[in-house]
Amino acid sequence: MKFEDGTTLIQLSDNVYCLNNAYRQSQIFGDRTLKAVFEKLSKNNYVNSDSYNILLHNNFLTNQRPDVYKQKLLQDSVKYSIQPKFNLLRILLTDVCNLNCDYCKVIKLIDAPSAKPTQPERLEKAIKFFFENSTAAEPKIIHITGGEPTLFFDSIRQIIQFKNTYARPNENCWIVVGTNAIAITPEKARFFADNNMKCIVSMDGPEQVHNILRKNHAGQGTWSQVDKNIKLLQSFGVEISISAVMGKHTIYQADENISFLINEYNPTGLGINFMKPPTTNSSDYKYLIDEKLYAKTMYRLHQKYRTCGVFFELIFRHLEPFVKQNFRFHDCGAAASQNLNIDAKGNIGPCKSFLLLNKMAMKNINIQEYSNIVSENWERRSPIHFEPCQNCSCIGICGNGCAYDAFINNRDMLAIDTRGCKYVKCFYDLFLKDLYEISCKTHEGQNIFVPSQADRQQMLGNVKEIQNSLSYSIGHQTKHFQK
Length: 483
Known about the structure:
The chain is α/β, with parallel strands linked by helices. It has helices spanning 32-42, 49-57, 68-77, 106-109, 120-132, 153-166, 186-194, 207-213, 223-235, 254-265, 291-305, 313-324, 352-356, 367-378, 395-398, 403-410, 418-439, 453-460, and strands at residues 2-3, 7-13, 16-21, 26-30, 61-62, 88-92, 140-145, 173-179, 198-202, 240-246, 269-274, 311-312, 327-328, 339-342, 348-349, 448-449, 480-481. Strand 14 (339-342) and strand 15 (348-349) form a beta hairpin.
């Protein structure tokens, strides 16, 4: 018998160890007894039958080739780019915005921004193409963003008409609008409510925090308008979530900021986004934060609010595969051939960020051309194919991060997303310690124990992904390998 590939012993503290299978997302916890068992078996020495049986029963030992399970993952990983099946259509409706947020990359990256929104005939073709190349039974989202999409409300009305024309009977496809909320009026709020549309509103926290970087073109803060119009949307029954950016302007007041957002607006979800360089030559942007500080802050917030069911999207998309023990091939639906994007000029592509750079962009709306673009660029963009990732304990939950961030930091879209890699590794350490602290309460006195599914579920608390809502991972809802 040999240890299956991906099996390592991780020391969590002075007398706490975790035997971890990175490919299966399986863990065994114990004291120095577990360490001794691991060392003896590594040298093919005898150990007592109880310990041996625990390891054998939980697939840490195998009498086959040690890489058999890994080979299954490799075979499964290439399925998704063979025939794209979309679950997200993101419409970058306009390059125009009524704000001038310091860290926004849209206007800064676009060459010759268009003053007009996406033309109706291109919108119709893209929406028809989206439904033709998706599965009716699978939940899906049309995400309208920009620039600021509410500046062109007639186009939003047209999108709803096209969606109603091409969606199949009883198909679960919901509309999400990403907005700064400045241009929201009672008429627009009523339209959103009547069509069951959801709004993701950009706000960083209380007024003194939000106004640092989210300003209008006159350099004035915008918090009071956003606050007023969030409440206007909610008065019409429009579901909202908050999109905030965590940078140096927010991270040291994170608890107060998040508490404010939850208590003031009771949002369905919170996207607390990791601050990124706004352009390809701003890797030294002054508001960037340390990756480990971000991870520790975010997981502390998750632990604080998980019993309340607060959906922190970035945490959830990494924690769910850990809890459910599924292998996450990609972090983004673009690399998994599941995202379709159209910009204001009518260009089509798998990734919104590369569309801004006019990369991986198509004029033709053709499924074979789309498939070729993804397979040529990203077919193997998964940690299961990356040699440096093979000995990493968190290979099963990271999905190799963001290709755009890899390009920004390494000038190579196929490189590792190094900043994302750092905070995901920190997440993983925090997950292991959290799972140990939860499960040791139900295994008191045992030198070696396996956390139960109930133990694992406690890590999520009351947080769950809900279809047709904003408790959902938009653009990062990718396929997992399920055992």
